[in-house]
Amino acid sequence: MAALAPNIGKIPELNRRIIFTFILLAVFRVGVFIPTPGIDAEALSGFFKQASGTLLDFATMFTGGALERFSVFSLGIMPYISASIILQLLTAVVPQLEKLSKEGESGRKAITQYTRYLTVALCVVQGFMIAVGLESMRGPAGEPIVLSPGWGFRLLTMTTLTSGSVFLMWLGEQITERGIGNGISLIIFVGIVANMPSALYSTFQLVRAGEMNFLVLLFLLALMIVVVGFIIFMEMGQRRIPIQYPKRVVGRKVLGGGTQHLPIKVNTAGVIPPIFASSIIVFPATVANFIDLPFMKTVSESLNPGGILYNVLYIIFIVFFTYFYTAIQFNPKDVAENLKKYGGFVPGIRPGSNTADYIDTVLTRLTLWGSIYLAVVCVLPSFLIAEFNAPFYFGGTALLIVVGVAMDTAQQIESHLLARSYDGLLKKGKIKGRGL
Predict the structure, then answer these.
(1) Residue 205's pLDDT is what?
(2) What is the pTM of this model?
(3) Helix, strand or coil for residue 295?
(4) Rounded distance between C-alpha atoms, residue 235 and residue 266, angstroms
(5) Of 8, 142, 289, 428, which residue is the least packed, with the fewest Cβ within 10 Å?
(6) CA–CA distance, 48 with 169 (Å, rounded to integer)
(7) 395 backbone φψ class: left, alpha, beta (φ>0; ψ -120 to 50)
């Protein structure tokens, strides 16, 4: 990538994609500061300061600070992610959806459309519950957060928050299609990165106030560097299964033959499991924070970061979604059939079902280590908060998403550069051929 980076400016198509991505991400950041009408901003800010250290901080991180400001993007992209999770789970158990998913591009478009409809439905429900909850909330001095409560405020909030999330969904799809990288992941990435400077400033303020030892700060910074290195190492880790291809005799020539490798990543699912797991936990608990009922308060408090229930649920969801998403992305039976079709085989393993079983065994074991790695990295902040009074952004889910998305985006840029270089070599070859 470093050798190809100077050529980025020489490729007009890649330049357009990168500029387009930056423009749409800038639109997202502007929208974070557009407030939802009918809210007392100072009272709301005081409420969030009182709720500091709860799961609301986690939800604010995933919305890029939009929830704390109660902007038009307060729900963020999480409803779309939740809808995607539900549709993918239903695809695995509903025969009609499973059949639709195997119909190629037309089936994919139909499932995407269902995901959009479900996103709108989730936004309406969450927007209504949050609006009703805000009407009963008070600021630090007992002042109401909602200026004019009633159905007018509820309908306006539902419409505003739903429109904001649907617009973010559209932005993510446009970035994926016409920009560079995965649009949904990049929106979350930008939201986290935008809040990191304030987290670092808060850390230095703790050191200046004597609430955190300077040596502890150095330890946290060193630990963060180690975690980044560990994430990169694990994301690049893979098991290479040798594949043998027989030689073919065509006339007097011997073609093919030799050994290639089938690479299987330790973490095939990438950053999707932590994002899905966070989505499952964050928004139900966030809605519970806005509902003034004893039962809902108990649920919200039990799901605070660092709590036993929170960590247990988070680890369970991460392990589940790691296996689930890996099963969607990688099908050992299809790989075995393709190898058999082109004459390839794993040395010592019979082609067909035996090869599929072998690849499935290797994949299952690697996925176990991948899920353990994701769980360890993601629960790290809970211990840092409890032991060192550290900001939530050191290590953990945020750092994993930032590093993972950055690596995926860099790989896409590298793919564009390599494809362009390959095209250039082909064109040069054609020109030389014509000259001869």
Answers:
(1) 80
(2) 0.79
(3) helix
(4) 7
(5) 142
(6) 26
(7) left
pLDDT tens-digit map of 355-384: 899 999 999 999 999 999 999 888 876 677
- The amino acid at 230: F
Determine the Cα–Cα distance for residues 348 and 243; give it in Å rounded to an integer. Answer: 10
Rounded distance, CA 170 to CA 135, Å? 30
**Interatomic CA distance for residues 308 and 257, integer angstroms:** 55
Would you say 82 and 283 are in contact if contact means Cβ atoms under 8 Å apart? yes
In SS3 terms, 316-357 reads as: HHHHHHHHHHHHHHCCHHHHHHHHHHCCCECCCCCCCHHHHH
CA angle 408-410-413, nearest 5°?
115
Instruction: Return phi, psi of residue 203, to 5°.
Output: -65, -45
Is residue 287 a contact partner of residue 259, using CB atoms and an 8 Å limit? no
CA 226 to CA 231: how far, in whole Å? 9
- Per-residue confidence at 208, pLDDT binned at 50, 70, 90? confident
Residue type, 361: T
Please count the other Cβ atoms lying within 10 Å of the Cβ belonging to residue 189: 24
Tally the domains of the chain: 1
Query: Within a 13 Å sphere around the CA of 277, how many CA atoms are in the beta-carbon half?
Result: 30
CB of 281 closer than 8 Å to CB of 310: yes
CB of 185 closer than 8 Å to CB of 271: yes
Question: Which residues does residue 256 pair with via DSSP β-bridges, in sequence order?
Answer: 247
Grade residue 243 by pLDDT with cuts at 50, 70 and 90: confident
3-state helix, strand, coil in the chain (%, to 5): 70, 5, 20
Domain that holds residue 366: 5-435
Q: What angle do CA 13, 14, 17 make, to 5 degrees?
A: 90
- Residue 253: strand pairing partners: 250
Question: Measured between alpha carbons, how far is 341 from 203 in angstroms, rounded to an integer?
Answer: 58
User: Which two three-digit tokens encode residue 341?
Assistant: 């079709």
Q: Rounded distance, CA 255 to CA 241, Å? A: 22
Burial of residue 261 (CB within 10 Å: 0-12, 13-18, 19+) is: exposed
What CATH number corresponds to the domain at position 109? 1.10.3370.10
Give me the DSSP letters along 71-136: BTTTTTTHHHHHHHHHHHHHHHH-HHHHHHHTSTHHHHHHHHHHHHHHHHHHHHHHHHHHHHHHHT
Q: Alpha-carbon distance 131 to 117, whole Å?
A: 21
